[in-house]
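Next comes a concrete protein, fold included:
___
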Amino acid sequence: MKTRNKTRPAPQLSLERPRIAIVEDDPDFRALIQGWLRPSYDTISFANAEEWLDGDEDAIAPDLLITDVKMTGANGFKLCASVRAHPAYAGLPILFLTGVDSDEGFLLGQEAGASAYLTKPVERLVLLSKIEDLLKQNSNSAALANFI
């Protein structure tokens, strides 16, 4: 990921719509998720982890990242660990949305730094509720950090 050695500002409560990055190698599922999110969120999508990692952080600048686990090239666990290691994205909420439905997958996601883990198939309202929860938690954490 290209960097300019700066930290990403904490999300601010405003009239701007939150921006969600989606990393998903299945184009049909990626389009479905984008369709569910468009009424309330701005989205940017990537076909694989390499596209995200090669992107310009200022152009991406999401408030939340949704990623699959099994993808060609770097998997979602590696992507999550790379994002967590990047100073600008250390506090970014990361949601795994994956077909890997196992305790091992869940634990690997936690070790990589995932904020939440949902399995496919996922209900639209369950996904939207989880996204809202993650954005609120992140906003509350940022407000608390600014207060202290």
About this structure: The chain has one domain: 19-147. The chain has a mean pLDDT of 83.
